[in-house]
Amino acid sequence: MLSLAIASALLLSACSSAPAAVEPTAVPEVAVEATAAPEATAIPEPTAVPEATATTEPTKAPEATATTAAEATATVEATATMAATATLAATQAATATKAVMTAPTATTAPAVASTEWEPRQLTAKLTGSGASFPNPLYQVWISVYTKNVVPGVQLSYSSVGSGQGQKDFIAYLTDFGGSDSAIKSSDVESKAPDAIHLPMVMGGVMPMVNIAGIKTPLKFTPETLAGIYLGAITNWNDPRLAKDNEGVAFPDLAITPVYRSDSSGTTSIWTDYLSKVSTDWKAKVGSGSAVSFPAGIGASGNAGVSATVLNTNGAVGYVEVGYALAAGFPLPFVKNASGNFVKPETNNVSAAANGMNISSNPQRLAASITNSAAPDAYPIAAFTYILVRQSTYTDVNKAQALADFLYWGLTTGQGATVRLGYAPLPEGMRIAAMKALKTVTVNGAPVIDAPVK
Fold first, then answer.
1. Can you spell out the DSSP letters for 336-354?
2. Are 318 and 370 in contact, with CB atoms under 8 Å apart?
3. Residues forming a β-bridge with 427
4. Between residues 4 and 411, the one the model is more confident about
5. Each residue's pLDDT tens digit, 231-240
6. Domains along the chain?
7. What single-letter DSSP state applies at residue 24?
8. How far is CA 233 from CA 229, 253, 294, 449, in A?
9. Rounded to a whole number, what is the largest CA-CA distance in the chain?
10. Is the pTM here over 0.85, yes or no?
């Protein structure tokens, strides 16, 4: 979503001391896509890859099933989203530099990987699919890693939503999955007993608002956010909104709530928060990756929601912060559990994890941190995860290549998080993720031996 050329350059600059990096001119050209696209566009926009989940472990994959009506509908939705995001893409091209350079930078990312470890120069083809929430970051990681760190590895990640990413992973259609929410316990026990949720980065989910003539960062309370999405607050001139936004001249304009039409980890984060702060929401709607919204219109993916808001006067949609920054929208204030209005800036997103208990079980790292009690915490914050298999990979080379890439993401790659609108992992969670990664085995043998630091 963000300019890969700009973001990749920033990562290379920020992490110039990474032990595995080499001069770009010395690296042979690696085709991430089938066509020989120019270097800056070797990885396409996330919505432009509708089918990137080809079977990668044929000996493990179940028999292919016939396309269902739901899958056909999803394909139509994906096509519609690609058209809807065309306008957003044009806007992002003009605002990418500003969005990246003005992202909050107060929090320092963890140090780069120790010189005791370097990624192995392996040759492998790896595919993943899932959450759109971290997609801009993952695309930058993939671009830098495959061109400047381990050029023998081909990596692709398709932004199809957390729900589909979980399905692809469980069905052995991908080597790894991306999800903002945990796989259901029942599915883990019956379908993916060795699944590990590796936290990779933190981010905030924010209300992105388009009201013609108003560029002021708006303030929202739990009550007004729940009211808008319940259909109880229907006009921007509602007194409840005016009360929290003194001096803002709201027009007589209908509110159009925009929600995710696909199974979405971002929706899971949003509804988890609303269920904690609104008894009405919890009773009438509840939480999950796919719920029945009482009001508004649906769009597929964070990109689809962003595009719909961008093109609809009076719209509000919930998106990961980086998507709003890329489109040039201001960061809003949301009232937290301590009664403070805070923006989803890096320090405030990171603060949401303060005091959390981290499980010592590598298969129990997924955790909810919405509505944190920390006084400076942004209340709609979350971890996003990469799904890996602890013991059922069969290809040693591919498992090693994947482990090296993820370890790099947990060390050197964290340097890109802040400038792309995310927050780096807290040190305790980053260490826990590295320990969990080291439990991945093939035929009982660990696939990575790297320092946990």
1. -TTS-EE---HHHHHHTTT
2. no
3. none
4. 411
5. 999 999 999 9
6. 4-202+383-446 (3.40.190.10), 204-351 (3.40.190.10)
7. G
8. 8, 12, 12, 55
9. 65
10. no
